[in-house]
């Protein structure tokens, strides 16, 4: 008798467990060379994955098109997650190209500046709703589109921040929104797990992405992370990408429903994690 169920064979050992050769997927949220999506794309390409990369608007094209070579010249797709037809079109391209998906990375966040820079107490209903829709519910919509294409299992990833766990003054409205995303991760993991679909969230430390540039006091966050994190430095988009790679591959085959910190240990200084 074996301890391993016959319908869930053991993943390969050693370096083979980290290979993504033959894996196909979607990476969303590319904006420029500081994007976490870019770090993920580079890491996954280096391990053999093939993917479609989405960006949000035509205004981003001068910044994203020159990045193609570093990502292995992936297929690009303009996708507005607020537009149901646009999002459906992204997943339809994956269906027509491969007939399946192995992974989806959601690296998208947004809140109107007037709400992001103010107190949560004063957040408008419209601003809160928009932030929740783009930053959280769009992940649910992606999961719904991905599920029928992951009939052999797969991995869904989203990005959060420890301001969801502890109050970080500069993070404001995005704290409750990311807390909802983290809870969503757990529920999706529970619901999709029987189909072999794993759902995880990565929590990087401060990184100067386009989304982070909207925070009023980002430099304060970055300085605090550098001073207080056990590693005494900020993390890189490549380090986030490496974490995404192992969660997507066979090395992370038994990992789901978790929040995975890539922040030099900074979240521990707040008592979280």
Short description:
The protein has 273 residues and is an alpha/beta fold.
Question: What does this entry look like structurally?
Answer:
The chain has 273 residues and is an alpha/beta fold. It is built from eight helices and seven strands, in the order βαβαβαβααβαβααβ.
Topology (elements, then pairings):
Blueprint: E1 24-27, H1 36-46, E2 50-55, H2 61-64, E3 75-78, H3 84-98, E4 103-106, H4 113-116, H5 125-146, E5 154-159, H6 174-192, E6 197-204, H7 218-228, H8 237-248, E7 259-262
Parallel strand pairs: 1-2, 1-4, 2-3, 4-5, 5-6, 6-7
State the helicity in percent bands: 25-40%
Average predicted confidence as pLDDT? 90
What amount of the residues lies in strands? 5-15%
Biggest sheet, spatial arrangement of strands? 3-2-1-4-5-6-7
| Main β sheet profile | 7 strands, parallel
Based on the model shown, name its key terms.
273 residues, alpha/beta, 7-stranded parallel β-sheet, 8 helices, 7 strands, globular
